Protein 1
Amino acid sequence: RAGDRDRAGMEEGEDGLPRAEASEAGGSEDPPEGSLEEFRRSVLPGRTVVEVTEVLKRLCYTGLGPGGMVHPPAFSLLEAVSAIELGDPKVDVGSIPEARNCGTPADLLAAGLAPLRLEYDILLGVLDGLLALEASWYKGNFLAETVYTSLYLHDLDRLEGNSVLRACCELARLTCLRVVSVVHRAGVSDEEDFCTSYQGLPLHVPGRPDGADETKRWQGFASRVASKLSKIALRTQPSDEVSLDCEELPIPGVLTAKQMEALASRVRLRQALLGVIECLERDGDVDARELDRIVSDARSCLGSIRETHRFGGVKDGAKFAFFRYLNKAHMPAVPPRTVEHCDPDEVVGYFESFLDHAVAIAKTDSCKTVGQLERHLADLSDANPETVARSLQCLRLCRLGMRDLVSASVGLTAKYLESEPELGVCLVKCQEVTEAFAKALCFNKCQQHRKCRRVLQTLNSCAEELRVFQIPLQALRVGEGEEGMDPEALQRLRTELSISACVRWLCCLSHRVALRQLLLGFDLELYQSGEYLMVYWYCERLLAGQISAVQEWNALLARVTEAGRRLKGKGKKRVVTAAEDEVMCTIFILESTRLAFNATVRMLAALEKRGTVTRPELPFNTEENLYSQRFSPLHLATNKVAECFPEPLCYDAYAYATNVQDMALGQLCESAGLGFGNALRLLSHLKATYGERGSREEDVGALERTCKANQIAVKLAGRSDKLKCDLGVEGRALVLRIRT
């Protein structure tokens, strides 16, 4: 009514919508129940209350139809995302009676809910329900709609009367706090992956310092509780039952030894989860023995939980422990999602996979070269870890000695690279690129595909800066006049050769980054089957370029060694650390993979001629434009005149190389079979020559199996037109399947 609006200090503008003006409450009397002033006092500070009831009524009467929207003139598209449809319970939490009547945590606790005296099954349900909600939070839901729907977490001091609840809830709070810190500092997640905001929820308890001392205090408390339960269980015969109903453990009834161990396992699991995070986040190398002990204990606890779980506790405890709309004051108007039914295998499986990832993350410290680190991160990424594991891996990288790792990869000692200003810049730039690539591999695969572009951009910028230090080497060439060169010229020659070696190493790395981005497209299902020929041809050319770059880099290091050999005094110290056997292993594996990819290109050309694979129909595009769209993001040199890493490959080269119109189907199949055979022979030679040392570069066994399967299948496909052929992708490698 107009009179009510005037008394509330509301004014109506030219557009007919109200202007928010806060009115002063007259006197100290409480406003009438249900009035606008009472609602104003109940909202959080900083929010403005505007009454729009009369405006909506008037607009409805004057022609606002179904689906219409009321908005002020400054309404933007960004605000439209958070707009709600009044009365729709899917988006308007205020229209749900349960949400309106839920009450605050203080009101519910005052009403006697969340009791401390709980029967065994109910207590187990509360603890398991809290664990299930925590797993749901890790998978992307809000903290306010998962973990903190538990009323017990809103007043931890009152849990002093139940030691099991107190230990689990305190450690759950500290774990959530630590996880928020880890994910926020790592910065490798999106809002869709994980929400670090806790919307004013009491993760920080007033008057308590949240640090190492607080964690140590509650870890010790939990250890004492679990130890006490385990000792009582050990003294109890399997057929006996014991009462634990006391001030510290108010559990009515009697319990068996197995039930007491089940309670202890919940407490120990809480200790282990927090301990794993602390162990991986700690400065310095990971204590492998300590981590193995913690993980082993956690696995044992998860085994016990799998046998005695009560994951229905979220639903069963909804009347006294878990409240879906408990945190409505700390959430947007959209109704919260929640976990009302939990699959035990899914919850336990999540934490088991987290422990597997934690063990893998601890192996980061054993990586001694960039190649080893890349393979380690790629293997972890292929295991599809959740946000928390990827964030811990990123923080682990920050504690890795990148200086020594990069210098070992470049093939020159760190002391030598830091001996001169130009070489010091080379080390810094190579380290910058390595850190960018390593962090990119800590993102999820979709983000990795995008971040590789940024890495290539950074790499080309660094390579361009290093080229400034290079001078023409014709006058300093190691050749016939080398014996007569003075020591200063030899020293300068070695420096220039070292700079060139660093630039070549960046070139090698650029091919690996580009290859990673292209192969990730198979995991993300970005390619149609008609594009496989184009993608595999480009990958084969990238491998050929990488082999050439590795050979050039190795030749430059040999020249650095030769120049150093002719120096006298301190300059004669060995500065090249690259092992010839490791370099040859790398070249062998790269060449084997290139031959396999080349054979795959021929196999795809044969299948295209056979009609099994068809090129994509492009009604609004051409194949040349599609080629450019796929591969132009790989070439990001800032200076168009300078050399680009990796070197661009034009469409004409692809069209010429894949033009097989003059070849018969049998010839193509035979050529593909020979290519796979050559790859197998090279792998066999690698294993015979270098043994186990060669298997560190890639999974040679998987490449051998793929080559053998395709070699047999392509021969069969070339001999009979009646056989049906299907293409499958296994580990980013195409496998030809034959069906009758």
Protein 2
Amino acid sequence: LAFGFWGEIFCYDIYRLYRLLCLWRKGMMRLTAASIGAAILSTIEPSSSFARPSFGIGANGRSSSSNGVGDGVTSTCSLPSRGWAGGETLSMSTATDSEVVTVSTSPIEGMRPGTSGLRKKTTVWEMTENYVENFIQSLIDTAMESNGGKMLDTVVVAGDGRYYNNDAIQTIARVLAANGVSNIWIPQDGIMSTPAVSAVIRRRTADGSGEDGQGVAQGGIVLTASHNPGGPEEDFGIKYNEGLGQPAGEEFTETLYEKTLEIKSYRTLNSDGIDLSAPVGTEYQLTPTSKVTLIDPFENYLDALKSCFDFDGLKQFTSRPDFRMLFDGMHGAGSKFARRVLVDELGMPESALMRCDPLPDFGGCHPDPNLTYASELVKRMGLRADGSADDSVDASSLPVLGAANDGDGDRNLIAGAGFFVTPSDSMALICDNYDAIPQFASKGGLNGVARSMPSSAALDVVAEARGIPCFVTPTGWKFFGNLMSSKESFDGKDYGPFLCGEESFGTGSDHVREKDGLWAVLAWMSILSKANEGVGEGEPLTSVREIVTRHWAKYGRHFYCRYDYEGVESESANAVMDFIRSSFVGSDSGTFEANEAGIRLVGAEEFSYEDPVDGSRTSKQGLILNFELASGDPARVVFRLSGTGSSGATIRMYLERYEKDSSRHDMSAPVALKELADVALKLVKMEETTTRNAPTVIT
């Protein structure tokens, strides 16, 4: 035991010397005999207590520098025993003898954020000198400028747990503290879903609790590449959420980008890292005016969900012996929140969860909850790869509800036994069944709904029938944020309660200012619970299939699917868009004849958007080809370049056709849309321009 104890101290000394060399190499401190000696002596100096260092997630916060320049601030916290000292709680005294240093740097090209922050290959973030520091310094300068020139007081920093998450958190905390941010809130272990970060910003007060709108954080830095793969050779990203919990708008991100092109230096500390696995409530005083607090990742988000749903009622429904559910966490951040809600709160068995342990590389999977990447869940729900039912499987043996989250927990997939629900249909169903959701029912229904332009018009039909204002926006949750915060930010019309979503498996409401995968799952559980009121034990439950097919019979079906051409050369991708723009937009539709299937191009347009809240205008948001079918029913195909990838370009082609005839509603969407897809691909010369003869993914 003694050998192991002192052996670990020796290893920790080596680690501290390594950190000194790294800091010296980056010009962040003077490497002197005094600093080396202090690094070693500070570990073995007499003390009544000692906390084991936690390798791999940051050191325990003790200073690596003693060069006479630091502030000599001390903080104290308690750490639980790690099983080597009889189980007692130990007291840890942490000296943060930190020096604020200014490091010269140069602009790095390519830091323009996309629709959801800046995403690059992990190697770019990890291996490019000063990459994280440059971006965060530019971000905090932009945030201070938008705050009237005053430095932010409180900022949340959290990530989805992908590779490089905790290393980046350490770097960000040092830059924030050196710039004078007083309170830096980091969830224990550094992992939090994106909607949970929004909940913390909106709800958390100084003592940890709080109602919606009482939050004191002025922003949040979210480390995520969302549904993109993670790992040393995969993707990493950083996005910023503003003071209402919403993603930063275009004005903010453009200013940030401009600052990355002008940066000459950044501020940071020469301190060691912090132990992110320490107990909730642990504080690290990094400078006399800046401290890190480890917060409970669940509390505020759980409060937000409980304000939306009847947890007692859901617990009673899910305890029925004939109800089974399967949730796929895809090894993302949302999986730990799913366990907390579904198992700990609602009492469901662990067998209801699959892949619900966050992993840095998401277990080698692509954490995008669609028919392709959630293939195991899809199979276990009795579905084929195209979303149609596998007739060889007995539907009565399948779970009643299947669901999945993506890497950062903001997207969702919904399926019933042998039945896939498209994201666009899911939004429309939630809108039409608002009375099953206490968040909406308690306020008399919805005051506004919105969808992204590429999503199907299924939501529009329901909104029109129910007299609910409906907005069609560009892709990007920040556009929904303005609508949700119209009254809060602009003293405009109050659209809350509000429902919104995107075809890319994103659904949410105004309980936070992000899409929320777990919220969508609980919404569907509530719809099922309401539909089965009065159904006794032994009687068959009303299924997801029955709920959706009844909806189609009432409103008609919008057949819908998406073709993704991933990793296309940027030049080729832009050539496709330029060809559509020059050949079809503004052209005389009378010049286009119907093909042998009776499908005729009747017009084309490029989508632009004028925000009804702040008046801002966004252009070039997608190219739309409008068609008329032989039946006279409308159809459309949308082409758009995705802004969420880390390299190359993704061409997304969205296909939609409306069908009122209920006798034709049982067709598989890819089959129903195949002829339309063939016509569109031939018109735009997709294969000729990109050399791709098939999409990477069909969802």
